Amino acid sequence: MLGCGTVGSQVVRLLGEHAADLQARAGARLELVGIAVRDTAGERAPWVPRELLTDDAAGLVARADVVVELVGGIEPARTLVLQALESGATVVTGNKALLAAHGPALHGAAARGGADLYYEAAVAGAVPVVYGLRESLAGDNVNAVLGIVNGTTNFILDEMATNGLSFDQAVALAQELGYAEADPSADVDGHDAAAKAAILASLAFHTRVSIDDVPVTGIRDVTAEQMAQAAESGHVIKLLAVARLNRDARGISVRVHPALLPATHPLAAVRGAFNAVVVEAESAGRLMFYGQGAGGAPTASAVLSDVVAAAGHKVHGGHAPRESTYAQLPVLGPESTAARTQVQIGLADEPGTLAAVAGIYGDNGVSIESVHQQRSDDGVARITIISHVSTEAALERTVAGLAEEPRVHEVISVTRVEGE
Amino acid sequence: MLGCGTVGSQVVRLLGEHAADLQARAGARLELVGIAVRDTAGERAPWVPRELLTDDAAGLVARADVVVELVGGIEPARTLVLQALESGATVVTGNKALLAAHGPALHGAAARGGADLYYEAAVAGAVPVVYGLRESLAGDNVNAVLGIVNGTTNFILDEMATNGLSFDQAVALAQELGYAEADPSADVDGHDAAAKAAILASLAFHTRVSIDDVPVTGIRDVTAEQMAQAAESGHVIKLLAVARLNRDARGISVRVHPALLPATHPLAAVRGAFNAVVVEAESAGRLMFYGQGAGGAPTASAVLSDVVAAAGHKVHGGHAPRESTYAQLPVLGPESTAARTQVQIGLADEPGTLAAVAGIYGDNGVSIESVHQQRSDDGVARITIISHVSTEAALERTVAGLAEEPRVHEVISVTRVEGE
């Protein structure tokens, strides 16, 4: 084992407590031969056998059949995982950043070494969505994946929606409860979700997708007022990872952004720090996988299921599903990416203004699904416009056009609409 | 392929339409070598190649690497599946009745033949809960499984709850829409759910559980009035398959019955003919798998994922997860099965009656969580009592005691309470 933090120490505990069960399932006794940590003298959970601690990670990798990488981040994890795979050791990792940035290199090393790479714990903790996409949907074609894959931001948005907290108040509460880091940017700016989106899209569409292919909008600009308005119109706002096949353009789009979802959508009911991934498949229809997306024990559960599978293959033969990239679909740009938006603008409350706004939509080829106007006392009307499906590029041009129109005082918000 | 009904004809269609995708994923071209049917001259979907039809099922089994059994029922499916497995052919089946009645014999034949047995399609259609329990939770210990595993009854109960239909009206609507058979008893009496409960419990607890181990109560006695009362108290009524580990008694309980669930429980939101299975695991916590539990294309998706896995193992080596029965836990009787109930009784509206009722609970060692009394004009009070967790046997004795108490006019209903 490489690393012994929150998840790693739970893996050590469960390997010991459930040794007999795990042996019965894997067909062999699982022996923990070493735990590589930076500081062998540091404080550890009481059940961590200190005699197994070492600071020689490379030496440990060289003598293990299965390497469980829970270091996180790119280096030294990348070098150690590559070393393990090239030497034929199975790697079980929960390292989404490494997979999303260097997936092809890892899979290439696995192929060269004849080794297996498992990463259920890298996406949505205990939620078995990697198994789901790699194996359960191997006989189907995926049209779209929509996921709540970051529990911290889901907790924050849920607190804003349910208890009316501001963004800053909700972040502070998440920090207090241990859901958010002191620097919450990896979560709230969507980078953690983007790494998971790249992994999910790679699996769903049999195509290599890197984190660099994933445009990201985080949740810093979501206001309590927007959340309340969403509720009034029967919606919720969730931070979604969205990957979608565009059959006409023969490509895929992958995005992370806050989105309005109808309150009746299965993802709308995902509360607190839970994760869930909806897969829309051609034959299966809509599937959802739901569970705890983080935390020591839930993530350790995913790690151990991979370890049991890895050990079972060492005993009985066989391999993990290999990287599947045969489809090689291009990742589409904004001109080919389908999208819908809700735009809120403030504009002069005078005749002809609405016609001008509608004209900007029409000039950009975007049709309008609904318009709601809210008058105020100060001569400024607030209008909420939901579009039909168009392209991301056309929607961006529309917003640019609105911003240039003199009678539009302000573009208050632009929010994606999903799930219908 | 054995059988070519609703699911089988979709499997044939998808094998043709997605041949290239399936080949890329399995590592070999999948060739449909024959389709055994009773009547080779009968009407078929236009895409079914008539030259592959045969009425010699045993002959077909003898020349196939993978046998897809979609005949259903016990015979001739049992004989053909045993023949296939003993000769070393992989079997992919959606036959829950066969598995729940003869699972040990099938797994035994697979072990003797060195063959693999796949059955994702046998439980909850497209919902990958067999994968989930066989593989994703291999590193965890399951405490309980609660499932809505019969779409027909969920549709009927949902119509009763949402649109106020009576049981008979809802059954008629389900028949009209093709969700229920002309004779709906296999669904409404819970036998279909019981077969799935046996399979889920076997997987979850690494123990052989047969359909004969599963006491069943169907939904015929659920009334529209009960549904409305459940809604008033913030609950729904669902037909649940429940399998639970009792650590103290070192055994498991498996049951199918209608149950009151809090409206906030994830299973409460499962509408229409959808299926969902909640797994409560020691480390992972609560997981849910949700999707379409029946229908040609969704079930075919599950069959094809198994076929791809089977073909992949033929090409690359390895095996399906073997039957795991090492835990050998006993299936507990009512004296050791934990349960909670809601009991509704009509009783004389006079002093001392409630004390007598409470006394009957106390005498049987059952503690009461809540009592609600509703007075009526005719001197008969209606009382709703929800118990704390007790044993099934003690709850049965309590109901028997209530029925014998002269001041109790009627035991109106007894409903299990789950999910808290």
UniProtKB/TrEMBL annotation, chains A, B:
Residues at which NADPH binds: 96
Protein name per its UniProtKB record: Homoserine dehydrogenase
Annotated GO MF terms: homoserine dehydrogenase activity; NADP binding
Function, in words: Catalyzes the conversion of L-aspartate-beta-semialdehyde (L-Asa) to L-homoserine (L-Hse), the third step in the biosynthesis of threonine and methionine from aspartate.
A biological process term (GO) from this entry: methionine biosynthetic process
Superkingdom of source: Bacteria
Class of enzymatic activity (EC top level): oxidoreductase
Domain ACT: 342-419
Organism of origin: Georgenia subflava
Entries under InterPro entries matching the protein: ACT-like_dom_sf (IPR045865), ACT_dom (IPR002912), Asp/hSer_DH_NAD-bd (IPR005106), HDH (IPR016204), HDH_cat (IPR001342), HDH_CS (IPR019811), NAD(P)-bd_dom_sf (IPR036291)
Catalytic reaction equation(s): L-homoserine + NADP(+) = L-aspartate 4-semialdehyde + NADPH + H(+); L-homoserine + NAD(+) = L-aspartate 4-semialdehyde + NADH + H(+)
Keyword Transit peptide: no
